[in-house]
């Protein structure tokens, strides 16, 4: 049973709880209608879980392929740059880790602090027949752990680590980052001016772009019936807007 609101002005935590409760039913309807295979976007044909341990309400957006649609053009450009290894810090249930392993058939190294998330990622890597491509590791706050000196070739690194990106994206401690392409979700609301600090830090080795959160193109989902349910499914449930830094290495790794 969902707890009632405690005041006329509910807290952000109460609003999030209400939204997640609502999305349980909405996402269940979408998965019943479409199955568990991603419909569109860069990871179309990947099998994904309906529920994750933290259940942020975005499984339906991932199923439709609208999740983080702001990065779709970036992902297309990373493919042109031919990465040979993907490093994913904050892999959660494996949407990107499993997605890239399946899409490009290359090794993926994935970190997360949540053991339940790692277990789910391992399960879905096997279901998508890339269990041998995805190496999972328990979360870290040490940039040196990301060096992976045994790997060869150009890297794509994705960071979604709830503010720890400011500590982990450190080319002085992990020199391999200087020649890797980076996609960094920045949590400025947790670490003020995080995105600006990282952009300055990487400006000498990378071409840095900022991508801000936008509305998805709803015309891409004409197969959905126009409704509040469809709107809730396609859009992400972020309580606070975020941005990403996309950092293209001036010199690609060998």
Q: What's this entry about, in short?
A:
This protein has 254 residues and is an alpha/beta fold. It is built from 8 helices and 7 strands. Helix content is 32%, strand content 16%.
Could you characterize the architecture of this molecule?
The protein is α/β, with parallel strands linked by helices. The protein has a single domain, classed as 3-Layer(aba) Sandwich (Rossmann fold), CATH 3.40.50.150. Helices cover 32% and strands 16% of the residues. The protein is built from 8 helices and 7 strands, in the order αααβαβαββαβαβαβ. Strands 3-2-1-4-5-7-6 form a 7-stranded mixed beta sheet, sandwiched between helices. The radius of gyration is 18 Å and the shape is globular. The mean pLDDT is 91.
Q: What is the first-to-last residue Cα distance?
A: 55 Å
Instruction: Enumerate the strands of the largest sheet in spatial order, edge to edge or round the barrel.
Output: 3-2-1-4-5-7-6
Please give the CATH architecture: 3-Layer(aba) Sandwich
| Tally of individual helices | 8
CATH topology group: Rossmann fold
Order of helices and strands: HHHEHEHEEHEHEHE
What overall form do the CA principal axes indicate?
Answer: globular
CATH level-four homologous superfamily name: Vaccinia Virus protein VP39
Tally the structural domains.
1
The radius of gyration is: 18 Å
**Beta content:** 15-25%
Average residue pLDDT: 91
Given as residue ranges, the uncertain stretches (5+ residues, pLDDT < 50) are none
| Secondary structure tally: strands | 7
- Sheet bearing the most strands, described? 7 strands, mixed
Derived from helix and strand composition plus strand pairing, the structural class reads alpha/beta
- Residues in helices, as a percent range: 25-40%
Report the top-level CATH class. Answer: Alpha Beta
């Amino acid at each position: 049973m969902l707890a009632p609101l405690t005041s006329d002005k509910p807290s952000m935590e109460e609003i999030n709880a209400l939204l997640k409760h609502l999305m349980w039913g909405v996402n269940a309807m979408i998965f019943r209608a479409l199955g568990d295979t991603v419909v569109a976007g860069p990871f179309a044909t990947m099998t994904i879980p309906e529920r994750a341990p933290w259940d942020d309400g975005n499984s339906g957006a991932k199923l439709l392929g609208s999740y983080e649609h702001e990065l779709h053009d970036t992902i297309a450009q990373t493919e042109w740059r031919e990465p040979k290894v993907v490093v994913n810090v904050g892999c959660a249930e494996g949407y990107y880790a499993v997605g890239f392993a399946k899409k490009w058939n290359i090794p993926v190294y994935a970190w997360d602090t949540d053991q339940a998330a790692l277990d789910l990622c391992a399960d879905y890597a096997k279901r998508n027949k890339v269990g041998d491509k995805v190496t999972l590791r328990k979360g870290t706050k040490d940039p040196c752990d990301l060096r992976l000196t045994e790997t060869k070739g150009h890297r794509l690194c994705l960071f979604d680590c709830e503010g720890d990106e400011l500590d982990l994206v450190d080319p002085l401690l992990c020199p391999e980052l200087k020649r890797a392409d980076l996609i960094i979700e920045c949590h400025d609301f947790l670490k003020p001016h995080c995105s600006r600090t990282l952009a300055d830090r990487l400006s000498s080795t990378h071409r840095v772009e900022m991508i801000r959160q936008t509305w998805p193109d709803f015309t891409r989902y004409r197969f959905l019936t126009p409704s509040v349910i469809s709107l809730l499914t396609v859009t992400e449930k972020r309580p606070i807007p975020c941005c990403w830094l996309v950092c293209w290495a001036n010199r690609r790794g060998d």
